[in-house]
Design brief:
By secondary structure, the protein is mainly alpha-helical. 49% of the residues lie in helices and 0% in strands. The longest helix is centred in the first third of the chain and has 16 residues, at 22-37. Residues 1-20 are annotated as: Disordered.
């Protein structure tokens, strides 16, 4: 098995570790990996250890694999074992997020691991379940650079997004695992709760964010068929289009790249966004993402 993984990754170069990846990766690890491998302070169950081969304690073995090899295992699984492939093979970026977490795993003590999996302290009343709050915060607006702020989004958009994850129409191994077991009624209730939360403040503005909107946001690029972002995302009452104001710039840029590359999918307007983003250049993606991040979400 080691030889096959090494051969499959010959010549591969791992990208730089993603920033702010520990929290969302820890949430997935707790539900998708720890039930077999265990985690800091949480041994794997005896029934799993009776498997042949037994799932290893990852903290003790990750140092024997390169980043590219770990990514290969995460994305493709291991044949003839209980190790499955990543739930959505199109999301190689999520695989690299897990690799970054695995690199940090040997240094995580049980307390730090528990803080990453769920926000510390007792949850206030009328807040998200712990499984959601671990990434998005108790009220859907404290997830970090790679996680969207869901508080105050339209209920219709949130419901469509959760349904798209559940049906496999929106690419994400992390979210597909998160919605597993949720009924349509559960998803509707989550959407309603998140929509009722007040939106968060703007991400701290930069010089780009404080300036006038980039041309791509205000006018689009008609010669290549790219419409203005604000034609949909700046219109009050546009229930199917998410609010972009105050979202983390890294998250927005990542989603635009997924749309551009034809990977993301989503609700009923996903095809429109895939077409709109197909002509975006890298600098346009960065500029518009930072600008939206610096705007305060509107009521």
């Amino acid at each position: 098995m080691r030889s096959s993984v090494r051969t499959a990754t010959l010549g591969e170069t791992a990208p730089p570790p993603p920033t702010d990846a520990l929290r969302p990766a820890a949430g997935h690890f707790a539900t998708g990996c720890a039930p077999c491998h265990g985690g800091p302070g949480i041994p794997g169950p005896p029934s799993v250890q009776a498997m042949l081969p037994a799932p290893p304690d990852l903290a003790s073995v990750v140092g024997t694999w390169s980043d590219a090899e770990l990514h290969r295992i995460v994305m493709h699984g291991v044949r003839f074992t209980g190790m499955p492939a990543w739930p959505d093979p199109a999301r190689e970026d999520e695989g690299w997020m897990i690799v970054a977490f695995l690199r940090a795993l040997p240094d995580l003590d049980p307390r730090r691991y528990a803080e990453l999996v769920a926000p510390p302290g007792a949850p206030p009343e009328d807040t998200l379940p712990a499984a959601c709050a671990g990434c998005h915060g108790w009220t859907g607006r404290d997830g970090g650079a790679r996680v969207p702020r869901l508080a105050g989004q339209s209920e219709a958009y949130l419901r469509a997004s959760l349904d798209a994850y559940a049906w496999g129409a929106r690419a994400s191994g992390v979210m597909r695992q998160a919605v597993t077991g949720l009924s349509a009624e559960d998803r509707a209730a989550l959407a309603g709760m998140l929509a009722a939360f007040p939106p968060g403040d703007a991400v701290p503005a930069t010089t780009i964010a404080a300036a006038r909107p980039p041309t791509i946001a205000s006018h689009g690029r008609p010669e290549t068929g790219v419409p203005a972002c604000l034609s949909c995302h700046g219109r009050p009452g546009q229930a199917g289009a998410p609010r972009l104001e105050g979202q983390p710039a890294d998250y927005l840029a990542g989603q635009l790249r997924l749309f551009r590359d034809g990977v993301r999918g989503g609700g009923p307007y996903a095809g429109l966004m895939t077409q709109a983003a197909s002509g975006l250049e890298g600098d346009e993606i960065e500029a518009v993402s930072v600008w939206f991040a610096g705007r305060a979400a509107r009521d």
